[in-house]
Amino acid sequence: MGVLEVLIQEKESLSSMIMLLRNSLESAPAGNLRISHCGQSVQYYYRPYRSKRKESKQKEAIQKESKQKELKQMLQSQNVSETEAIYLKHAIEDKKSERGVYIKKRDEKLVHDLAQRDYDETLLKALEKRLGYVDKLIDLYEKQEAEHLYEMLNPYRKKIVHQRILTDREYAEQWNSVAYEGKLFAEGTAVIYTNRGERVRSKSEKIIADTLIQKAISYRYEAPVTLRGLGTVYPDFTILNVRKRKEIFWEHLGMMDQKDYCERALRKIEMYQRNGIILGKNLIITYETSQHPLETQMIERNIEEYCMA
After folding, report:
1. Would you say 147 and 20 are in contact if contact means Cβ atoms under 8 Å apart?
2. Whole-model pTM?
């Protein structure tokens, strides 16, 4: 998946969340929640408005008078709940109160609704700001996507310019073009081929390989890797996560009910991690026994989580 597609997905996700928050705020209480605590004692106050800017006393008085009119109109509105109306009325009558109106314990729901409203309002502003950034990036990529600048050049200019950024397809092609010598097959080894005609050592490895092929994910089968303390090893699969431009190693342990095999496998995993190849980061481990075969669902999940995300 390219950068532009990721940005478009992010925009859709942000837009959906913003719409959800706006709908929630429309039916939320109009006031703010003030919390006062001393030790274990916590008190909640309803405050219908709070001025964040420092104004002159004259302006502040005018602003409060105007706000009182708005509050009275709000009190007459059908959108105000019965509980909120009680506190709103107290706030109107007590014009000098900066703390707000103390919320009684029986009105706990109002406390939660006000707290949620304050959070939703702050989150909405943050997401709208982020959406603005994403829109600008999408606009930039649609007009002049960095990965395709080279393709837009005149053919004669291409000959004398070194391409700095490769598209995902070009990067994968370059990665696939690297030659390597895999591990040799001993006599008597089962003859099993993947859908693209590549020989593997087990039916489970064939399933893994065929799933990677189906999803158009580049991989190398049993490409050599040198580990400090162990020498050259041949991971079952070295996979390219082209979106992140990094390699993922996948070992399938197919005989974990055999003691010697299990001990060798654990030793190899330990040496992987000593060399910075960490399980859950750039190392995938699947396993099976004669009684518990590999589930295809686990293959799909690992591919989606580590090779495509």
Report:
1. no
2. 0.53
